[in-house]
Each structure stands twice: as structure tokens, then as C-alpha cells.
Amino acid sequence: MTATLEEQTPTFELERSRPTPNPLNLTEEKLIELEVKFDAIRDDITAKRGDSDARYINRVIKLQRSLEMVGRASMLFSKHKPFWFLGVGCLAGGKILENMEIGHNVLHGQWDWMNDMEIHSTTWEWDFVAPASGWQRTHNETHHTWTNVVGKDRDVGYNVLRMDPSQPWRPANLLNPVINAGLAPMFEWGIAIYDVEFDQYLEGTKPKEAMLKDLKRVLKKFGRQSAKDFVLSPLLASLTGSAKSSIKGYVAANVIRNLWAHAVIFCGHFPDGAETFTEEDIENESRGHWYLRQAMGSANIDGSKFMHFMTGNLSFQIEHHLFPDLPSNRMAEIAPRVKAICEEYGIPYTSGPLPKQVFEAWRKVFRLALP
């Protein structure tokens, strides 16, 4: 069972006699002020949530399902190039919207307040090989609680990449660029395997029964996804002589979705300016310290409203990490207020256009392949 909105947001106890180290050396009083100001943004948006937000997410779901329907219908005639390109475009767009603006955000509990069990974090299963339950554990609970804390946030390199200088270098890290290049088009598969937590099983920190249970979920989900995209749909397309072209179309749509998701996620966590932290940095961490870490450990992407929409508003990664359970359509409204607070307290607010952020993330992949 997924945690409620209140349970998803980490809570903290402040030990005033032993303040946690912070990279800006903000005083305890300043950190308390920071907590109050960010909490005020949360309270304000929570109070504003209503019919307009519900209409928004329902319109997005309708758009996504329409794109998927047109895409799948086009694939029935995909031996004709115009239908193939139309099908790939609609399917890729639909899968991106389902994963990023709908699935990711629904699974964070952003729409649980509507009490609509069709779009609730405890019932939604997304169009992604990784089962929702495993992803919520590794993403919502682990990553968002311990963002960029090396040794606790397993997303720092996903156990296959060296993405921080403090991580020990091994000869296998020379393959950093090769591994990342392979991960990008197969990102959903990488996340699914990552969520099984084989590394923890091998370390003896995850019981074999739990690992096998998670693996069984992944294989079951893989079977459903494969049957839908690569068995049933091509079978129907075979009636028009389009079976082979439809398979190629579904492969292309999934690869496009994976490449986009990979780019957005890496731009939000690994460009220059996205800081990492040690386990010592989070000792006795107060809520103000947690807010500071989220702001400094994330990076935004500058762009148009359409770009923000297609990223699932994860282009506002800083705001998302500060308020992971607030509706995604509110991130653009929140961003100027967050930036103003960061400027007031001297907190770096890392943001840049997509090409720049992609370049910096990949540059880090290449740089940290070396000792």
C-alpha cells in the first residue's frame, strides 16, 4: 500500500544542540526561516487545489488516450509510410505523456486528494516495464528522501555508472559512456532491473524471497507490455500485411520514449551545479536542511510551455524535489517563488536550456569514467 500524501513527505526532528553541516553555512535561524517559507508555499498550493487542477489532469489523460488510440489504429496500416510515421509519432507522444505527466506524478500521490481511484497512487499502473510498486519504493521513498546523498541515494549512478568523484573508481568505470549510451534507448528496462535491487541481494541486505518477488513482478509486467505492443497489435496488423512494419513502429515509439525520459532525468540530477552530499551531511537533518539539500541537489531545464508539458513538468526538478506531492501543473506557478527564496538566502538555483543540461550531464559521464 502506497503511503498517504502526508507520509510521503519526509518528517524531521530538529536537534538544536548539534546542527547538521550545510554547504552554505546557513545559521540554524536561517534554516528555520527557510523551512517556514517553503512550508508556506506548500500550504498555499494545497489550499488552492480544486476543480481547475482536476480538469487539467483529466484533459491530459483524455489527450494521452486519444494519442494512443490514433497511434495503434495507424499501426494497423503501417506498411504505408505516412501511417507508420503518424503511428510512431502518436504512440511516442502518448507514451511520454503517460509516463511523465501522468504516471510519474500520479504515483507520487499528486492527485490522491481528488479521491478518484482511477487516478490514485495506490491503483495506477503505468505503461512502463517497471512495476509501479517497485518504482515507488526506490523512487518515492529512497531517492526523494535521500536525494543525492552518496551511499544512500542509489540513483547516483543507478549502480552501473560512476556519477560522483567520491564514488571509488574501478576499471569497469571506463565503460561509463558505453553503458549510458546503452541505457538511454532501453531506459525502462534499466529502471525495471534496478528496482529489483540485485545489488542489495548480493550484499546480503535484501532477502532472496523479496528479490524473487520483485523479479516475478517485473517479468509479469514485461509479459503484459510485450503482449500488448509486440504480439496482439502486430497480429491485428497482419490482417493488412503490416505486421513487420508495426513491430518496427512499436520499437521506435518505445525507444523515443526511453531516450526522452533518460535525457530529462539526467538533466534534472547530473548537470554542473547539482550538488551531492555525504551521509555526515544529513546527520540530525531538520526540515530546513532537507529543503536546502533538495534545492541544491536538483537542476531545472529552461524552455517553452510545451517542453515543460512533455517533461511532465520535471523540467521544474527543483520545485518537484521540494514538493513531490503537489500537482505538476502548479510547478510553473511555484518556480518564481522558489527562485526568489533561493536568491534571498544565497542558494544556487541551477537552471539552463536543454542542450546545455544534456551536454553537462554527458560530460560528467565521460569525465568520471576516468580516475
Automatic annotation (TrEMBL):
UniProt domain Fatty acid desaturase: residue ranges: 84-351
MF-aspect GO terms: oxidoreductase activity
Enzyme Commission no: 1.14.19.-
Keyword terms, alphabetized: Oxidoreductase
Region Disordered: start-end pairs: 1-22
Pfam families on file: FA_desaturase (PF00487)
Oxidoreductase as UniProt keyword: yes
Compositionally biased residues, Polar residues: 1-11
InterPro entries: FA_desaturase_dom, Fatty_acid_desaturase
Domain of life: Bacteria
Keyword Oxidoreductase found: yes
Protein name: Acyl-CoA desaturase
Source species of the chain: Kocuria carniphila
The organism's taxonomic lineage, starting at the top: Bacteria, Bacillati, Actinomycetota, Actinomycetes, Micrococcales
